[in-house]
Specification:
With 321 residues, the protein is of the alpha/beta class. 38% of the residues lie in helices and 15% in strands. Helix 4 (140-152) packs across helix 5, helix 7 (251-267) packs across helix 8 (271-280) and helix 7 (251-267) runs antiparallel to helix 10 (311-319). The relative contact order is 0.13.
């Protein structure tokens, strides 16, 4: 699997990032281990989780994904071969709390949150530590200082911003530059081939959709990349049992699906594979972040990186509206 540089410190990541949100929670341990093993076998090295996955399921605490990854890392002994990312900022401040009770991004909570994650993961550092949300109640200078502190302590190699607008990322980077602090080196936002209706509020709590300005920012900022989550819209492209949400019901969706099917027929690829090939064809470095529920799904996803769209096909897909 092809790899690209992330940041400026020689960290190379696979063009596919495996989302571990459901591992250990929705997916049982045997299935989770099989998916992780196959991802590594395919050449993947980039795995993303958070300190809150999956607190919202029945009986969930938010520890499930990190604990599962910790058990797998211990069993396989391959920590140094991988790029592990986790997040802070969306764990409820008390058991039973929801999104409205998310932990603040203060220096104290950032540091404590990472220590808790490291214990669950069974490691002494993460490679990428994300701000899971844009906490407007905490001064940005405090948040930047908190992330800088964990980098200086050697507990995180670099930091990134999830569910932020690019102007807020740039403002945080300016604060970091002025103080000599570690700066955000990546963004993680929702992004896929189909686009929601302009101005719509996504029903999934906390999701922030990437826009043209965000892609332009990433393309113009050396060393950064956009991790695109929900890149396959939870199976909507290929599973008729999963209808599109109301926020995707507009004429542009029909036009895009029509061209998507044309290019899939031309390339002999699945819809999912064409979507992923389109994402990595952007001028801005985009790393699809994909969660799967089986090894078979992972194999289909990984095969997308062998699909080569020609320039005409990529433009035709992009121009459909």
């Amino acid at each position: 699997m092809e790899r690209i540089a992330l940041g400026t410190d020689g960290i190379d990541v696979s063009r596919l990032c495996l989302g571990a949100m459901a591992l250990g929670g929705v997916q049982d341990e045997a299935t989770s281990f099989a998916i992780l093993d196959r991802f590594v076998e395919l050449g993947g090295n980039f795995i993303d989780t958070a300190n809150c996955y999956m607190f919202w399921i029945d009986g969930g605490t938010g520890d499930e994904s990190e604990l599962l990854l910790g058990r797998w890392l211990a069993a396989r002994g391959n920590r140094d071969d991988l790029v592990i990312a986790t997040k802070v900022g969306r764990r409820p401040s008390f058991p039973g709390g929801g999104m409205d009770h998310s932990e603040p991004l203060t220096p104290e909570r950032i540091g404590a949150g990472l220590d808790e994650s490291l214990e669950r993961l069974g490691t002494d550092r993460v490679d990428l530590f994300w701000s899971h949300r844009d906490d407007r109640q905490t001064p940005l200078e405090d948040t930047v200082a908190g992330f800088d502190a964990v980098v200086r302590a050697g507990k995180a190699r670099m930091v990134g911003a999830s569910n932020h607008a690019s102007w807020r990322v740039e403002r945080a980077r300016a604060v970091a530059a002025a103080t000599g602090a570690a700066a955000y080196t990546a963004m993680q936002n929702r992004y896929s081939y189909l686009q929601p209706r302009p101005g719509t509020v996504l029903p999934e709590g906390g999701h922030v959709h990437a826009g043209d300005a965000d892609l332009d920012f990433v393309a113009a900022t050396p060393g950064t990349a956009l991790l695109a989550y929900s890149s396959l819209l939870s199976g909507v492209y290929t599973n008729p049992a999963k209808p599109l949400g109301e926020h995707y019901r507009h004429p542009g969706t029909e036009a895009r699906l029509r061209v998507l099917d044309e290019v899939a027929a031309e390339t002999g690829a699945t819809r999912n594979q064409v979507v992923l090939a389109w994402l990595v064809g952007h001028a801005a470095p985009i790393i699809p972040l994909v969660g799967v529920s089986s090894v078979a799904q992972l194999d289909e996803v990984a095969a997308a990186f062998d699909v080569k769209l020609d320039a005409e096909q990529w433009v035709r897909l992009s121009a459909a509206a």
